[in-house]
Write a structure and sequence with these properties.
Layout: E1 18-21, E2 43-47, H1 50-54, H2 60-79, E3 84-87, H3 98-109, E4 113-117, H4 122-135, E5 138-142, H5 151-158, H6 166-177, E6 181-182, E7 185-186, H7 219-231, H8 248-261, H9 263-269, H10 286-290, H11 296-308, H12 314-338, H13 357-360, H14 366-378, H15 383-397, H16 401-411, H17 417-428, H18 445-451, H19 472-483, H20 485-488, H21 495-502, H22 506-521
Parallel strand pairs: 1-2, 1-4, 2-3, 4-5
Antiparallel strand pairs: 6-7
């Protein structure tokens, strides 16, 4: 096929029948947006806009990942002879907004129709609708079949249920896909092997862990890195270690590497933490899946194949597959079921600003410093670092959930709102009152001590709630229970915690509240957010 003329600002062959919009998290050649695509009649539109990087102050690595993957995808389409109108970030005419760019391009090309796969964020979807309406061109939003559960599937699951629970949704996903199923029953006779996947490392730490596959920046990525350093110099994060997969081929290599080298120990140590070990046995595949460089079905099947080949145990494979087709799909279902009101939920009436050290890692608490330093360096932290360190502290402190959400959306390379918001606002901060999770993930510093070596050398002692060595996590844990007794005492999963709180003597209660107030007063809240 003859290659069509393409350029950042050139004219597409006219007339254009359909203009297909490809967003930064939709880099899937076989998405529904391309159904019926005819290269001679249709064209693709893509745009890099500063507004999406500044909607929250995005980590530099997150910006680079999206822009580099977009540019590689553009090149792949052009090699097929597809015309791509591509607006680069530093084009002089770039208006800095998806909506403004689309409105102008729609008026310029005058296609019969605009086509897009459903965006991963409510705000973006509404912006596209408005832009199409202003340009007086029909916009067709198509279902995103990257996901296993369609919106109708989740709505059917949710219908008539007093409470939504991931476990039951996950079982439906297993039945639908056939993953880890034998004649209609779960592999091994159990649906869930979570109890087998909560191990901590021995005192001398993890054994030598194979380094994950690394993808050194090519010329395209290096150009993007320079661009981001120039235009987003004030944004958080480092680009010294950028090596994320930015093409489907690289993502496939990353998947094969994980299955071969780390999946066999992912299960036992998926909740463990260790100083100076950002990756441990985790896959590093979430960003590739969320940009649609990898199909979640392929990821889950690769793990299942390792089980069949005797290269990984059932408990670990089940735990990994549950994250891919369970939690990930469940989060998306929650997001679209409850938006846009979900964004404003605040069941615990938390109102404090986010402490400034979340942007700088300048804190004397070892666990928080370790995780935030790692986040700034790589744009990455695994699920327990997010849930039970940075998320736990914000929950216990009483930070406004919207501020916590914006920080997570900004700081992690895999953050797209459909998955980040329910995990942050619902699971981590319990701001939805129990839609996403059945109870708040509230714990003392003893949990962090049990699962990591972060407490070693810290001046705070995880078991103490009085004196200068008191652990802020432990003090704030008891304060959290005291503050939220009326809101949470009815929760059946928190009965033991509240019974323990009731045993506190009046003098202990007063001391805890006084020390919790001192902790809050000692934090700096100025800065971003």
């Amino acid at each position: 096929m003859k290659k069509r003329r393409t350029s950042g600002n050139g004219e597409a062959p006219k007339p254009i029948r359909n203009l297909v919009l490809v967003l930064g998290d939709q880099l899937h050649r076989h998405s529904s947006a391309f159904d019926g695509f005819v290269p001679g009649d249709d064209a693709v539109w893509m745009a890099e806009v500063a507004g999406e990087a500044r909607h929250v102050p995005s980590h530099k690595a997150r910006i680079v990942l999206f822009l580099s993957a977009m540019r590689h995808f553009k090149t792949a389409l052009e090699k097929e002879g597809i015309f791509v109108h591509y607006r680069k970030l530093d084009d002089p005419e770039n208006q800095g907004s998806i909506a403004l760019e689309l409105r102008e391009e729609a008026r310029r090309f005058k296609p019969r129709k605009l086509i897009v796969v459903e965006p991963g964020e409510w705000r973006v979807r509404e912006d596209l609708k408005r832009a199409a309406k202003e340009a007086r061109i029909d916009l067709e939003i198509r279902e995103d079949r990257h996901f296993i559960a369609l919106h109708a599937d989740f709505e059917l699951f949710a219908r008539g249920r007093k409470q939504l629970r991931m476990e039951y949704f996950y079982r439906e996903m297993r039945r639908k896909t056939g993953l880890l199923m034998k004649v209609g029953a779960p592999e091994g006779g159990r649906w869930n092997y979570d109890a087998d996947n909560r191990g901590a490392f021995p005192k001398d730490g993890p054994m030598k862990i194979p380094a994950p596959a690394s993808f050194l920046p090519d010329a395209v990525t290096r150009d993007v890195i320079d661009l981001v350093e120039e235009h987003f110099a004030d944004h958080p994060g480092s680009l010294r270690h950028f090596d994320w997969p930015v093409t489907p081929g690289q993502a496939d290599k990353a998947l094969k590497d994980f299955v071969a080298a780390r999946l066999h120990l992912f299960g036992p140590y998926q909740d463990a933490l260790w100083t100076g070990q950002p990756w441990l046995y985790h896959s590093r595949l979430s960003s590739a899946m969320n940009l649609k460089l990898l199909d979640p079905r392929d990821v889950a099947r690769a793990a299942e194949e390792a089980l069949r080949d005797g290269k990984a145990a059932l408990a670990g494979v089940e735990g990994f597959i549950r994250q891919v087709i369970g939690w990930r799909e469940y989060a998306r279902g929650i997001y679209w079921q409850y938006m846009p009101g979900y964004l404003e939920m605040n069941a615990l009436e938390a109102s404090l600003p986010l402490p400034w050290f979340y942007w700088t890692a300048e804190t004397e608490m070892n666990c928080l410093r370790e995780v935030i330093c790692q986040t700034l360096e790589y744009g990455y932290a695994h699920h327990i670092q997010r849930l039970m360190v940075t998320g736990l502290f914000a929950l216990l402190l009483g930070v406004a959930p919207g501020e916590v959400h914006r920080w997570y959306l900004a700081m992690y390379v895999d953050a797209v709102e459909w998955v980040e918001l329910p995990n942050t606002l619902g699971m981590s901060q319990f701001a939805d009152g129990g839609i996403m999770a059945s109870k708040p993930y509230a714990a003392t510093g003893k949990y962090v001590d049990r699962m990591s070596n972060y407490c070693t050398g810290c001046r705070h002692e995880p078991g103490r709630i009085d004196g200068e060595e008191a652990c802020p996590f432990s003090v704030l844990y008891w304060d959290f229970l005291l503050r939220n007794r009326n809101r949470l005492a009815h929760n059946p999963r928190m009965g033991l915690q509240f019974r323990n709180a009731e045993r506190l003597a009046p003098a202990e209660t007063k001391s805890i509240r006084r020390r919790a107030d001192a902790i809050r007063a000692g934090l700096a809240y100025k800065g971003k957010g």
